[in-house]
Amino acid sequence: MNTEITVHPKLQHCGLTTGNLDAMLDWYRKVLGIVVHARVNAPADSPFKTVAFATNDEVNHRLSFFETPGLPSDSDRDRHARVQHIAFEYKSLDDLLGTYLRLKTLGIPLLWAADQFIQTAMYYHDPEGNIVELNVNNFDDDWAVTEQLQNLPARLHVNIDLDKVVAARKAGASPWEVHERAIGGEFTPDASYELHTTRW
Amino acid sequence: MNTEITVHPRLHHLGLITAKLDEMTEWYRKVLGMTITQRAKIPMVARMTHQGPPFSGFAFVSNDEMDHRVVFFEIAKAEIDPDKRRHTGLQHVAFECTTMDDLLGTYVRIKNLGISLMWAADHGVAFSLYYQDPDHNVVEIFFNVYGSPLTATEYMKSARPGMPSQIDPDKLVAARKAGAEPWDLHTRAVAGEFAPAEPWDPQSHF
Q1: Predicted-complex ipTM score
Q2: Distance, in angstroms, between A158 CA and closest chain B CA?
């Protein structure tokens, strides 16, 4: 067996600890469409009470949840090395925008949305305050995204008001035109996002 | 556009906050083969005036066709949470090998680099190796013993996952080199044949 040349294993799932498993599963079902394939009592000497394995695609689990009832979030998390966000990718701008409207109807508040040159992304807090990013690439080709990332403009992103983007898209703008108009500043929100008071 | 039926987006990447950008990108390069697609510093003036992100720098890295699989955000004061196990957050992030030999070969390669294993187990569905990155984030590298993701899903739905069978990967490597097929290794691991001489404490390792 090869023990010298680096093998590239593929990102497959994330595990999250939680103090409230039901609230987490409900939120991820509503937002990402997950189903739970297994929900098991953890063995007696495990540090957790319940473990749930959930997915929204063909892989057996994309998210695993480790519950210790009442486990608090880190009140000092601004001072700690940690996960900043977990990201999920849509195949089309319409899937992203349609999801934005669906989540808005469900009363799930948006934290931030921006055109980041490589992608258009929106951000939400899950019930534990973890940040979930939902994105769509601005390029159809994955390698073009890599090229854009290697040649990133200094301003990094342009904030967008997704309602304005939806209106432009419904008026017939193609996804690429939406991207060009977004970085041109046409969809800038009237009231700026409260980025520096949001818990990132 | 569809605004009612739930669309299923695919897991794409995760972002990590770190004070050790160089150490982290180096560790992810050595362990997972990640290369840097983009690395930049955020000008101080942008941070002080809230005109930019609250980071001093970032690095986007990937080990496959995606532009990034992990993005590191640098915050110089970010420390390891001493109470990590008593706070909600990331429990681990997992990466999949396509063959058992890739998993075992990677174990040997990483060991030769002097990076120590945290623990290892046969979970019934996968052989998993666990490592801690320089910030003590837990990185799992695994091989699905069922091959097909759909068969692994069937296994999950059968709700058999229980206590993992702890394994000593060196014993697995020896058995594999002696000719055992991955499924045989799985059967023998579950029977306890490859248990480590000193078991890992679930309270501090799982």
Answers
A1: 0.91
A2: 11
Question: What total number of domains does chain A contain?
Answer: 2
**The whole model's pTM is what?**
0.94
Q: Can you give the pLDDT at residue B46?
A: 64
Residues A53 and A93 in one domain: no
pLDDT band at B47 (very low <50, low <70, confident <90, very high): low
Q: Please, are residues B145 and B99 in contact by the beta-carbon 8 Å criterion?
A: no
**C-beta separation of A107 from A153 below 8 A:** no
Q: List chain A residues with CB under 8 Å of B12.
A: 11, 87-89, 135
Contact list in B for residue A165 (CB cut-off 8 A) is: none
Chain B contact for A109, CB < 8 A? no
The topology (CATH level 3) of B14-74 is: glyoxalase-related enzyme like fold (3.30.1900)
Whether pLDDT at B161 is above 80: no
Q: Which helix (H) or strand (E) holds B172?
A: helix B169-177
